[in-house]
Amino acid sequence: MLATAGWIARGAEADPDAYELQLGAWGRGSIAGEPLPDAKDAPPARIAAFFDGLTERQRQRLAHRYPLVVGNLPGAPLPLRYEANRTSLARARDSERRRAFDERLSPTGQRTAGRRANRFTSMLDEGRQFLSFDPTGRGRAAEVLGDLETAERISVVVPGADTQLLTFERTRQKYHAPSGMAQALHARERELAPGVRTAVIAWADYDTPSAHSMSAATTELATEGAERLVATVDALPGRAPVALFCHSYGSVVCGLAADELPRRVSDIAVAGSPGMRAGSAAALGTRARVWAMRAPDDWIERVPHLAIGPLGHGSDPASPSFGARLLATGNARGHSGYFEPGTVSLGNLARIGAGAVGAVTCAPEVPSCQAERDGEGMR
């Protein structure tokens, strides 16, 4: 009905992008006479076993030949994924530099290419680690802060609408962008719990809607994002507890993913949520603790909390009736200020990420929201 009305556009199928072309080549490829595993459907354990059976030279050959596949492949060795994504970033940067001077492009197109080249240059800074990177379309990426393999606690920041490669990081309003959110969270976790090894992922690895489009009011992109989020968490190394920090439309993604996430997910915290596609925290079907916060001046409060078919995102997680643990935001301001350094909201999120759930500050007039001990599920 929505497509017929023109609210959801369905056009002709697009030509294959760079990732799809590499994926097709991977599907036809082989190593040492053996076919390569299915990069789209093989579980992470199958992918991990495949790479374990290769020599280092064979792994490097695959990462160089198919960097977009290897760099986005859950189950592939983390150092190899980081290296493959650096290769893809460098190639994408060089391509955009050429496009910035391509006279066949409009001046706007050339400027956009120049901005993308600058963004990729920044992402190639020494020491940065990308768990995923895809430059096609508006682009997707996931950056890792810390060491995922030795972490005792892992945090995943899931951003909302208008997230793309050009907005993955910002100079102004740094902490409104996924990279800045993750940096602030990681720094505060280390301040509050210096004895805990933490890692944070800025997970912008799904196609987000434009904030003022009809797609922001539907679940189509969130459903696809939820599948990608589950695959990412399933493939994380080790057994460290994982906390999800879901902002705005990202909380829709987390809500749809909740009942499919592995048991190691100990906490799901939403900030500025339009809804989680559930009538209550219990209806999410997760054993994780569910937390919610909303700043007093966040405009998201005025969004209708309803769900009719694919339209709308359901009940308000910041309402006491939803059943989430309600957190104080203190001096946080607006819809995107929850990760600003020095805010009460960031301190609360960092305590959850570091496992200090008994030390959070509850929202005003909430009798109790703390968990008595680490690992205590909400229900």
What key attributes describe this structure?
379 residues, eight-stranded mixed β-sheet, 11 helices
Characterization of the model:
The chain has helices at 2-5, 18-28, 44-52, 56-65, 67-70, 78-99, 107-123, 178-192, 220-234, 249-257, 344-354, and strands spanning 30-31, 34-35, 129-134, 140-145, 153-158, 198-204, 242-247, 265-271, 289-293, 325-326. It has 379 residues and is α/β, with parallel strands linked by helices. The chain is globular.
The oligomeric state of the chains shown is single chain
Question: What is the overall pLDDT average?
Answer: 91
The radius of gyration over CA amounts to 21 Å
Q: Tell me the strand order in the biggest sheet.
A: 3-4-6-5-7-8-9-10
Quick rundown:
With 379 residues, the chain is α/β, with parallel strands linked by helices. The protein is built from 11 helices and 10 strands.
Provide the fold topology.
Blueprint: H1 2-5, H2 18-28, E1 30-31, E2 34-35, H3 44-52, H4 56-65, H5 67-70, H6 78-99, H7 107-123, E3 129-134, E4 140-145, E5 153-158, H8 178-192, E6 198-204, H9 220-234, E7 242-247, H10 249-257, E8 265-271, E9 289-293, E10 325-326, H11 344-354
Parallel strand pairs: 5-6, 5-7, 7-8, 8-9, 9-10
Antiparallel strand pairs: 1-2, 3-4, 4-6
